[in-house]
Each structure stands twice: as C-alpha cells, then as structure tokens.
Write a sequence for this structure.
C-alpha cells in the first residue's frame, strides 16, 4: 500500500512506518487467503492477478506477498500415498496445470496407473488418480516418510512451479474430516466422491483436531498479514474444518489455534459468500450446511462465521447482487456480482474484497 | 511322470508308489526352476511350454506343476515403492506382458509418472519406472505395508495374470545385494543400471543374508520337486545371491537355508550354462564372475556351483556346442545349442534338461 498506485488509506500503521520485524520490505501488501479446493483456487488466481496489476514489480510479477492457507481435512493415505486434494487444486491452478474443464486434477491427464491398481484390487476404484497426479503423490509421500513436515513438503512441491504465491497447509497434523452417516463413519472423500453426499451426513468429526496446532507458516502469515480474505469455499468442510463452525444442529471443531490466531490478527478479514441467489456456487455446500443446521444462504453463513467484534471471523462480507442484503451487526456488507466468469472478473472481485478490507480499517 | 507319454524312467520311487504326504496328485511332475530376471524368465517360458506339450491337461494347460524360485537381491525401496525387478520380469514374461523388444518392463509402457518424479527431484532419474509397472509397485507396496509377506504379495499379484506357474521369492526377508567399489558401497541396481558395471565390483555383499531364511514356499517346492532346473541366469548376482557362490577372490553368501534345502532335495538338479562360446549369454555375468575370481566359461561356472556328490549344487550341466566339454567329476554333461532363438527351441532345451534329470536318477 506504499506504492503510488494505491488510492485507499493504509491498512495498518505499522506497514507505513516500517515497524516490521523483517526489516526493509516490498512495496505491496501481505495478503492471506483462506482456501479450500477448486473454488478457493480460482479465487486465489483472481487475487494474484489483482496483485500483479496493482503492485507490479516490472517483471510480470508483484511486489505484494500472497499466502494461501489451505484446508487439509480432505487429505488421506491411499495405497501408500498421501493425497491432499485441496492443496493440489490450489497448486495446480496457480501453476496453470489444472484441468479446468473437468474441474479437478491435472490437465492432459491419463489414468494408466489407476487402471492397474484397480486390476490388482488396490485403492479406491471410485477415486481415480491421474498419472501426473500420482507423480505428485509419490514425491509428497516420499518426503513425508523422510520426516519432512507437510508444510516443508508443500514448499518443495511448489518450488517446481514458480507460483509467486506461498501455499501453506492449515496444519502439519493429520487431521482428517470424517463423516457420520447413521451408525457408520467414513472418510470425507468416501462420502463426498463415492456417495456424492447421499445420504446426508449426521455430523462431521475431526479426530485430533482439538489437539492439532496450526502450521508455523499459517501462524506467521496471519500475524504478518495486511489483509485476510476468506475464499468462497465450502463453509463447513473447507473453511469450517480449519477455523471451526457451529450450527444449531452440530459443529465442526476446526483447529482452535488457527481460529485464535485469526481473532488476534491485526489485519481486517473479509469473506466472500459461497452462495449466489440462494444456491451454493459449487460443490454440495447446502448438504454440508444442513448437517450443521445452517441455512444455505449468504446471511446465515455470515452469521455462522460471526462478526469479529463479537468474537467471530468477519469484518466484511461480499454477497452477490441476487441475494438479500440482510444487515449483520458488526459485519460490513458489499454487494456485487460474485460469479467467476473470467480471470479479469475474478480479479475485479478480489479488488473489491481488498478495497473493502482497506475501508474497514481506513 | 506317471502319464502315458513319459518315456524315461521315474525320477523318484516315492512318486510312482504314491507315498506323497499330499495325497492323490496330478499326473505331471513337479518342476522347480531357480531363476534370476529376464534370462530366467525366458527359460521358464520354455519350461512351461515343454510341460504343456508333454503333460497336457486337455485344456491348453498342463497337469505338471511348475514353480519358479526367484532372486530378490535386486529388490529395493524407491520413493516409497518396493521394486522387485526379477520377480516382475518373470511375472510379466509368463503373463505375456513383458516388453520383449526393449528387454525389460511391460509392453505398451509409458513413463509419465517417472517424468513427474524427476521434475520434483524424487527417485533415481537413471532408473525409469513405467506407468503400468508403477501400478504393480504400488499394489505390492500397499500389501507389504499391510503386513503380508513378499510371498503372499507375489501370489496376489500373479492371481491377476493366470500364469499356471507358481512364482516364489527365494526369501521373504529384505536381503539386498550391495556392491563394494573401492571405498564406497552402493545398491546393486545403482552399480548395474547407473554405472553399467564400470568400475568393476570389488565384492558383492548381502547384509542380513546369513540370518535370512528361505520363503516357506521355496522350501516346500524344493522338498516336493521331481526335477530342479537352474536357469542360465547370472551365476553371481542372480543364482549366487540365492544359494551362495565362492570364488578364489571373493564370495556371495546367499541364503544358507536355501543351499541346504537344495543339497537335501531328492530331486536331481540340472543347470544350464549362461555362457555360450566363452561369452555371457546376456547381462554382464563376466564382470560379476571376475569379482569372485571365476572365469567366464561354462566349466569354471559348473565347478563353482559344484557337484552334488561333493556337497555342491549340480547333478547335470547343459553346455553349448561352442564350448569345450571339459569333464567335471560328479557332474553329467550334455552339449546342445543353448540359444533361446524361439519359444519352441527354448522348450526343446528345457526338454533336454528335463530328460537329463531323468537320466541322472534313472
């Protein structure tokens, strides 16, 4: 925000006066995005594009620092490989390697290994792993077995791609989201991919989450952030599994230290509604929200996230034009089209979210 | 040998009189092959073809029982996958899935996963793993991690292919062949594939081999065998790593229990020379033999294997027409062309080896 192109006020005084513990710094702000998988990945692309336009470094990149704190609740071990769907979605999108037509995995993908695994009777036949994707899984699993933390592994994987974005797992602990359906319990991916959320979940549980600590990188990014944005990801199984979310029917615990860190952050926090015209933008957010007893509408989700002034998450909230602008005590509202129709439009949405954050603290 | 097509005498009395602990049995004999990788695989194909011709079951298969005891000294863990080159060579050849033009791996293979691994900096860039092959490695490694023995894993893998042959690892222990070159020591595959045997090895060592026990299947197959054939595999790093081999310069220890079981076997043991016209049939047997101080000629190899009557391995020895028929005390010799020019020719070689075994005990 010290760059000449900034029109809004500074987000924090410490930024302007240079009172940072890290010494002299770049001119762009430090932006953190909380993200799930594909939806968060697309939003992050827009944020990166916005930062490149607003704080260009003259070489096609930006002097701003973008960090993405990513959900790891979908992660699991399969056939000796650690699979991290949301981290991979963000990495592949930022790398320009995502299959945007299919909506998941790598572009130009093949599935020869998966076919062999199925022929031998190994793995989950309903969970197809692409060959290129398996290369990533093998690298990740190798480094995890060598004793690296997930954060260190993600940094190594991303080093190949030059993302100009720091990708950070919410925690280095293996905190997997499980789903209770009647008397049975299964991994989230089994319920999501194999059963496609049918029958609905009675509860989401996160064994070990209460004792898990945020990754060091997540804590550092939150503490140093000038602006924190909450992507329009699934509020329950992408955002809620990181920060916790309670409804009248049930709750996901999230990682307590991450919620605490966000509450203590100096940066304003602005979220984007994942619901447009009363319908979830993607995925099956409505089914997940129903498990918690939260209605699938923008206002209900914002209330569940809560106002920071009341111990919750949000300073500001972006909702679509098609949704009612219900007044929410302590949460500033901005209404605009929220569909990611193009990278330019997503960057414009990110710009508005950023400007709102400036305004909150201005 | 109880079938009407058998012209030779019975191999063992117990066979004819039915004094087997396993009760009524098939009419074909029980044949065991000791094998390394590709060379042993090709020989095994010939043995299976011979048995199908000589003891047909009327449905394209044989009433004989063929077991292959296979070297595991080349095995290793790479990027979280247990690789078993010799077992796979035999399995793929018997399954009709081997890439016979390239000489290793699966036919119609691709290498997309390997390229990704290399891009991330994981694995051995000089050791390319095919995509189909990786499917096998992932299945194997999954089952090993679940606690299955290697023997059980091999049985599961082979179940997919209908080999009509029992493939048995020499041991379920992880006994890997390592190579001493000057002051350094490396895995056999690194010396073999990356360095291509140059510089030559000062010694082959097998950590843990002295304490390793043969797989239960190997012991059972040897005890029940009517005929045991030693494939023309590398005498040092394929056969020697199973049964031990000593030369004036150094020795490979092998698995003591396997050598003992072979010495105690009632079945005759006939080997095939891996050297034709003074040159190794394939691979770099001469370099390996030099490490032990054994000359790369048929007579020297037979002497190193030793006569059973003198506590060694062999009752009979097949050598090529181009090699000198040096008389070897206690070892019967048969001279014939030994090149595997076609499946029919390899079957004819197998038939001669089998006939020689009958003659030894006739």
């Amino acid at each position: 925000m010290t760059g000449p192109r900034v029109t809004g006020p500074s987000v924090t005084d410490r930024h302007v006066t240079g009172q940072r513990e890290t010494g002299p710094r770049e001119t762009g702000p430090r932006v953190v995005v909380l993200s799930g998988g594909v939806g968060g990945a697309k939003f992050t692309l827009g944020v990166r594009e916005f930062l490149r336009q607003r704080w260009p470094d003259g070489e096609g990149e930006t002097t701003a620092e973008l960090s993405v704190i990513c959900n790891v609740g979908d992660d699991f071990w399969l056939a000796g490989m650690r699979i991290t769907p949301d981290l991979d979605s963000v990495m592949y999108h930022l790398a320009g390697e995502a299959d945007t037509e299919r909506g998941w995995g790598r572009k130009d993908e093949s599935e020869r290994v998966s076919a062999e695994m199925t022929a031998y009777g190994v793995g989950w036949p309903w969970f197809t792993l692409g060959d290129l994707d398996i290369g990533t899984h093998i690298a990740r699993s190798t480094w995890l077995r060598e004793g690296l933390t997930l954060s260190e592994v993600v940094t190594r994987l991303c080093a190949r791609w030059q993302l100009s974005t720091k990708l950070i797992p919410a925690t280095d602990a293996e905190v997997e989201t499980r789903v209770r359906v009647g008397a049975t319990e299964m991994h989230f991916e089994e319920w999501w991919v194999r059963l496609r959320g049918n029958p609905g979940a009675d509860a989401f549980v996160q064994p070990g989450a209460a004792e898990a600590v945020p990754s060091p990188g997540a804590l550092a990014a939150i503490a140093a952030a000038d602006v924190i944005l909450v992507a329009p990801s699934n509020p329950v199984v992408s955002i809620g599994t990181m920060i916790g979310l309670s409804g009248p029917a049930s709750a996901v615990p999230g990682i307590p230290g991450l919620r605490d860190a966000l509450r203590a952050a100096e940066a304003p926090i602005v979220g984007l509604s994942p619901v447009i015209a009363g319908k979830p933008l993607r995925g099956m957010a409505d089914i997940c929200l129903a498990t918690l007893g939260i209605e699938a509408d923008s206002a209900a989700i914002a209330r569940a996230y809560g106002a920071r002034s009341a111990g919750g998450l949000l300073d500001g909230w972006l909702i679509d034009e098609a949704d009612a602008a219900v007044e929410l005590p302590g949460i500033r509202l901005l209404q605009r089209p929220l569909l990611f129709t193009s990278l330019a439009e997503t960057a414009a949405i990110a710009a508005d979210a950023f400007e709102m954050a400036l305004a909150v603290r201005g």
Summary: Chain B touches chain A at residues 79-81, 110, 112-117, 119-123, 131-132, 134-136, 138-139, 141-143, 145, 156-157, 160 (CB under 8 Å). Confidence is low (pLDDT under 50) at residues 1-25 of chain B. The longest helix of chain B spans residues 343-361.
